[in-house]
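G.,

No rush on this.
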Amino acid sequence: MAATPLMTLALGRGLPPVENWHPLHCGDSLMRIAPDGTWFHEGAPIGRKELVRLFSTLLRKDDTGFVLVTPAEKLSIAVEDAPFIAVLLEVEGAGPGQQLHFTTNVGDVVTAGADNALLFKTMDGAPLPYLHVRRGLTAKAARPVYYQLADLAVTHDDRLGVWSRGIFFAFES
């Protein structure tokens, strides 16, 4: 599975250049992303996957927090943990040449490597995996993906972790 330097885009569509848009802050979107990856607007879950995917392409992390941005508007959005969830892991190869391909809940496909680091935050003594998806945005691993990573764990330089694209990602923060 080949990936672009940034990422393989879901459904063959590109991402808008939100990093180039700098409108004034217009207010609050009244939206939030829950820790389980559910998107809400005015307290109600957004049920249409296509709409969530569209909003996810407008998401950006600024110095002040997360925002939804278009060329004309910038609205804040509450993100309670990571904005995305890694819901699927496909493994290609083995050892240092192994590649870990993650699919997020919004359809992004990202391969862990130099541009998309796999990070581990310790919570209650356990390593929780997060993956850089794009532009400073991360995906938290869903439980099945977490268990897959644990099954792939190997020891390297006296540390436990996983390989992807020649980089060893240790299970410690």
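When you get to it, here's the other one too:
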Amino acid sequence: MASRCAHLDLVLTDTPNRAGCEEYLAMGDGWVHLRLCRTCGHVGCRDSSRNKHATKHFRSSHHPIVTSLEPGEIWTWCYADEVAMELD
């Protein structure tokens, strides 16, 4: 595990594409806790949701950095480096 994230150059947005998990919205289903891809704005659900859409998005897109969209949570995670951080 790295001590620092080496992918901060891939942080390109802080604007979500949708108001909920994109895949669950398409299916008409609910989600648990949202994550924002900081490269493309994709919104996915966390790993405790049935389909783990945020992690699936990382695996298919290789966009490594997500930020929690939950109220009161200010953390960001880099999947590639397994590093938690706070972004300004």
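The chain has a mean pLDDT of 94. The longest strand covers residues 34-37.

Enjoy the weekend,
O.
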